[in-house]
Amino acid sequence: MLSLPNLLTLSRILAVPILLFLLWPGAREDMRHQPLPLDYAFAFALYCLMGITDYFDGYVARARGTVSRLGIFLDPIADKIMIAAVILLLVFTRDVDGWHVIAALIILLREIIVSGLREFLATLQVSMPVTRLAKWKTACQLVAFGALILAGALPMWPWVKTVGLASLWGAAVLTLITGWDYLRVGLKHMD
């Protein structure tokens, strides 16, 4: 249970409240309405660290032959918690606003639907492997969220937010495509 890959996954889950604290408006005693650039900078560093642990927990588990049931269970949960928390925070802080909220909702809803579909198919002992396009979707999503957090730290560079929002829409399009692919596979097993 306390293998390095599991500890990395758990650290990702435990980092979410810290990320919340850094980006939550009014979390400090002065009750300011928007996080400061330094808060965003620390949040960006933490977000990058969380992304690195996401890569290395699986890599280390496979390399050491220590893939565990707990790790298989916790890793996707840690991913969903991180994604959902970041989406909600970015919308709440209005770093993602207007029509861009639709892209964020598409990503969030797909995560929920695919998780439920995977759980349903697991009861039928049907696995749904991650596709190459889904990996590209995840990469685009990680870049989008990272750029949007970084944009708060670098308000003097508006192009960073533009990159984040463009990547968010790219991730949303890939989300729709991969979500449909997974749903199509799942529908074959629903009678």
Automatic annotation (TrEMBL):
Q: Which UniProt keywords apply?
A: Lipid biosynthesis, Lipid metabolism, Membrane, Phospholipid biosynthesis, Phospholipid metabolism, Transferase, Transmembrane, Transmembrane helix
Q: Does the keyword Cell wall biogenesis/degradation apply?
A: no
Asked whether the UniProt record includes Lipid biosynthesis among its keywords, one would answer yes
Species whose genome carries this gene? Sphingopyxis panaciterrulae
What does the UniProt entry say about where the protein is found? Membrane
Residues that span the membrane, as ranges = 7-27, 39-60, 72-92, 98-117, 138-157, 163-183
Which protein, by its recorded name, is this? CDP-diacylglycerol--glycerol-3-phosphate 3-phosphatidyltransferase
Pathway where this protein functions: Phospholipid metabolism; phosphatidylglycerol biosynthesis; phosphatidylglycerol from CDP-diacylglycerol: step 1/2; Lipid metabolism
Q: Which InterPro entries match?
A: CDP-alcohol_PTase-I, CDP-OH_P_trans, CDP-OH_PTrfase_TM_dom, CDP_ALCOHOL_P_TRANSF_CS, Phosphatidylglycerol_P_synth
Give the molecular function GO annotations. CDP-diacylglycerol-glycerol-3-phosphate 3-phosphatidyltransferase activity
The GO annotation for biological process reads:
glycerophospholipid biosynthetic process
Q: How does it sit in the membrane?
A: Multi-pass membrane protein
Q: Which family does it belong to?
A: Belongs to the CDP-alcohol phosphatidyltransferase class-I family.
PROSITE patterns listed in its UniProt record: CDP_ALCOHOL_P_TRANSF (PS00379)
What's a Pfam family this protein contains? CDP-OH_P_transf
Reactions listed under catalytic activity:
a CDP-1,2-diacyl-sn-glycerol + sn-glycerol 3-phosphate = a 1,2-diacyl-sn-glycero-3-phospho-(1'-sn-glycero-3'-phosphate) + CMP + H(+)
- What does the record give as EC number? 2.7.8.5
- One cellular component (GO) term of this entry: membrane
Give the highest taxon in the source lineage: Bacteria
